[in-house]
Design brief:
Strand content: 5-15%
Strand order of the largest sheet: 3-2-1-4
Distance between the termini: 18 Å
Mean pLDDT: 80
Radius of gyration: 14 Å
Structural class: mainly beta
Largest sheet: 4 strands, mixed
Number of strands: 4
Length: 121
């Protein structure tokens, strides 16, 4: 997820910044609900809403402490928590950082969580 959000850059945020042009969050105008995908500018790879709008469920299992040099960590096998990434419309802007992770039990349901449908060509 983070690789796709950064789109080949070293930017802190998905899309290079956390302005209202690229992300829905609690500091943006009309950020009080989830919005249809594609209403903000895409990142360099043409991916929309990588920061903000809804937290995206990832297949990673939550691990409280990541090794500093970890690359694509999957967590621990017996973890009951799953990782969410990207921040959400009712979340502060620092949650839009490409490296930010949250975690919830897989059964959790809320209006600030969703998933990204992905396919290969």
């Amino acid at each position: 997820w983070e690789y796709a959000a950064r789109a080949g850059t070293l930017h802190t945020y998905a899309g290079s910044d956390v302005s209202s042009e690229v992300a829905w969050h609690d500091e943006t105008e009309d950020g009080a609900c989830a919005h249809p995908v594609g209403k903000k500018k895409p990142n360099a790879w043409g991916l929309f809403d990588m920061g903000g709008n809804v937290w995206e469920w990832c297949s990673d299992k939550y691990l409280a402490v990541l090794l500093r040099d970890a690359v694509d960590p999957w967590g621990i096998a017996d973890s009951r928590m799953r990782v969410v990434r990207g921040g959400a419309w009712k979340y502060y802007s620092r949650g839009m950082r490409a490296a930010c992770r949250g975690w919830y039990k897989p059964a959790y349901r809320g209006d600030r969580h969703g998933f990204r449908v992905a396919r290969t060509r």
